[in-house]
Amino acid sequence: MEFRIRPSTPDDETAILALMRNAGLNPDGVEGWLKWKYWQERLDWPGARSFVVASESEIFAHSGIVPGACTWNNRRTTVIHMIDWAASRSMVGAGVAIMRYIRGLADALIGVGGSKYTRQAFRIFGLRPCGSTTLYVRALHPLLGLKDRARWNWKTLPRFGRNVLSALAAPAVRCGAWRAPRIAPEQVHSIASVLPSARANVTVLERSIASLSYFLDCPIAPMVLHGFEKDGQRRGYFLLAFAAEQARLVDCWVDSEDPDDWRAMLNCAVQVALQTPGVAELVTLASDPVLSQCALESGFRPEWTEAVHILPTDEGASIPSNLRFQMLDSDAAYLQTLR
Q1: In this predicted structure, what is the pLDDT of residue 25?
Q2: So what's the pLDDT on residue 152?
Q3: Per-residue pLDDT, 123
Q4: pLDDT value at position 45?
Q5: What span, in angstroms and rounded, lies between the C-alpha atoms of 75 and 82?
Q6: What is the pLDDT of residue 105?
Q7: Residue 99 CB contacts under 8 Å (≥ 6 apart), including other chains
Q8: What are the residues facing 301 on neighbouring strands?
Q9: How far apart are CA 107 and CA 76, in angstroms?
Q10: How far is CA 152 from CA 43, 141, 165, 301, 320, in A?
């Protein structure tokens, strides 16, 4: 039987969803969601974002990608985070084949978390640790977390108890002289001067006006962009996504190394989430020391920590350290069920 690895098309949607379900994944399959993830134009990445191992009549493996680039020590490296990776048991090696193929599309692969099979693949392919990232949770309105009974399980009541205690212990929200005006999609260019930039001890994943515009069009978890400013001067931004009763701080940056400024940004994000109807909690991923410490001081509690792995295409290439990894760098920004 002949097969090949090729970019997927919208005609493959039904087969891709079936493949993921058979592999034990719970795909976001509402009409239009896969189109946005895989096939909607993305100006910062003109290439394909979904690939299949297929014969003329059947699909044996699939992987989507989240493309990006990281900068450190005057270097720039294109990177890919694989998502929705699934393979059929009827074709041994199809999942490995597609991973090898995608590895060649950028300078490096990035991997965080994943199923036990994904973690096994990390070991087999030799992905190396380049940092870690932690999920932080700030409880806002714990009772709202009980609203959807379909999601109740044995963890529900213990989590509710933790959320109540955490909400009571959280410090008051104080933004001081800082403001966080909402930025309309057609005004995204106004934050061009405060996009992330590499620092001596942190490797950042790039942002661009094109990439932020793409995410603001997300149909899965609607996203809202806010500027961050003081005395009329723009100093940063943050991007919130909303799924079920959860707000997610999926991306943020402050053009400052002063922890007070980062705490103020987090407080502004908390304030926006508190003012949004139906939001039970605000969650975020943080991997750099400054944001992690400021999250703890701002009433967030750590939920779990995962290692961030990287695999350069060139086996002799150096790898970045202290990679700043956020929700926007994977599908955590828009998964319907995050935890």
Answers
A1: 80
A2: 77
A3: 77
A4: 94
A5: 22
A6: 94
A7: 63, 82, 85, 109, 121, 125
A8: 137
A9: 9
A10: 40, 17, 20, 21, 41
Return the DSSP state at 170: S
- Sketch out the chain's domains with CATH numbers: 4-132 (3.40.630.30), 134-305 (3.40.630.30)
Alpha-carbon span 241 to 326, nearest angstrom:
13
Residue ranges of the chain whose pLDDT lies below 50? none
Give the side-chain half-sphere CA count within 13 A for 100.
8
How far is Cα 99 from Cα 258, in angstroms, rounded to an integer?
40
pLDDT at 30: 74
Q: Measure the CA–CA gap between 296 and 292, rounded to whole angstroms.
A: 6
Can you tell me the distance from the alpha carbon of 179 to that of 268, in angstroms, rounded to the nearest whole number?
A: 7
**DSSP state for residue 199 in the 8-state scheme:** B
Nearest alpha carbon to residue 19 among 66, 63, 65, 67 = 63
Residue 49 in contact with residue 82, Cβ under 8 Å?
no
**Residues 237/226, Cβ–Cβ less than 8 Å:** yes
Residues 152, 208: Cα–Cα separation, whole Å: 39
CA distances from 24 to 60, 201, 219, 288 (A): 15, 39, 24, 32
Q: What is the per-residue pLDDT for 119?
A: 74
The CA–CA distances, whole Å, from 61 to 76, 114, 281, 299, 309 equal 31, 17, 36, 42, 22
pLDDT of residue 316: 64
